[in-house]
Amino acid sequence: MIVVLRPGSSISEIDHVVEEIRRHGLSPNTIVGTDRTVIAAVGKEKEGLQFSLETLPGVEKVIAILAPYKMASIEGHPEPTVIRVKNFVSGGGHIGMVAGPCSVEGQQEIMDVAHIIKEAGATGLRGGAFKPRTSPYSFQGLKEKGLEYLAAASKVTGLAVFTEVMAPEHVPMVSFHADVLQIGARNMQNYPLLEAAGAQPKPVLLKRGASATMEEFLLAAEYIMKAGNPNVLLCERGIRTFEEHTRFTLPLASVPYLQEKTHLPIVVDPSHGTGKASLVKSMTLASIAAGTDALILEVHPNPEKALSDGSQTISTLAFGQLMKDAKVLANGLGKSLG
Ligand code: PEP
Ligand code: MN
Description:
By secondary structure, the protein is α/β, with parallel strands linked by helices. The protein folds into two domains: 2-63, Alpha-Beta Plaits (2-Layer Sandwich), CATH 3.30.70.1140; 83-337, TIM Barrel, CATH 3.20.20.70. Helices cover 35% and strands 20% of the residues. The protein has an eight-stranded parallel beta barrel with strand order 7-8-9-10-11-12-13-14, surrounded by eight helices. Helix 3 links the parallel strand 7 and strand 8 (124-126). Helix 3 runs parallel beside helix 4 (144-157) and helix 3 packs parallel to helix 11 (316-332).
């Protein structure tokens, strides 16, 4: 880390900072400029050192050089992590495609959707059995029955099941039925949930909190990895801004930005990211152009009748058409999609 001293800091203040850096086992390299002094502290940094150096007299700021998310960081892990579950592959030139209704609504319904999206080329099936709804009066999901329906649809089609887990005590149940555990935007900083998902073996799709910074997002992934699970997919699903023309604002610069910072695969959710079915196809193609490693889309045979998020859900028919263009674009970029 780099310690920047205030202009006019005294020799004794500088000496004290140097002593403190040594006391923490790092070697100080002092650069004396015309106006101010800068000290580079080289060596293995201990947690909290940055903040303790910042409190010393004469110090203006301390700049960390290494990312605080050690396991998620691309530093020391330059090759991309590829996540494979059943036929779903994300990363390393493969764009995984996950589709399905916002909520699991019934056994036949999820089985039918699974067949149609598989036919169109998807490899992942989404559907919420535990639903985080803004209103307690809205449909809350079919819970364990919904998980059983998803598992049955996966058994027949071979699609990998992506479904949300909302509470640490549900992790064993969801992990038993699902192939990938989704942690929703509202729970991105639910640390006991992140740790519980990190302590089970299935990959985790972590959604960005609607007001989370990139660093908070990556540190949330770090919780899962630190608990023992290296297979985390990071999902950009839009953030809350002043803008009202879409439900959320979908910042696609997150995709290449995150790829500069982490080896984990990046997923985009254009359904929640826009809240509008008419915008989903364009933003899917834009996500592919931005370099996404996977997509997760809300798809329903009859979006008007969907029990949740119908206005951002595309029809199974529209999904088939979207897949054709998405494949052409991905293949043109030298990637496979499905
Ligand atoms: C969902 O995928 O249906 C969902 C609730 O997503 P998010 O957590 O991104 O709002
Ligand atoms: Mn939804």
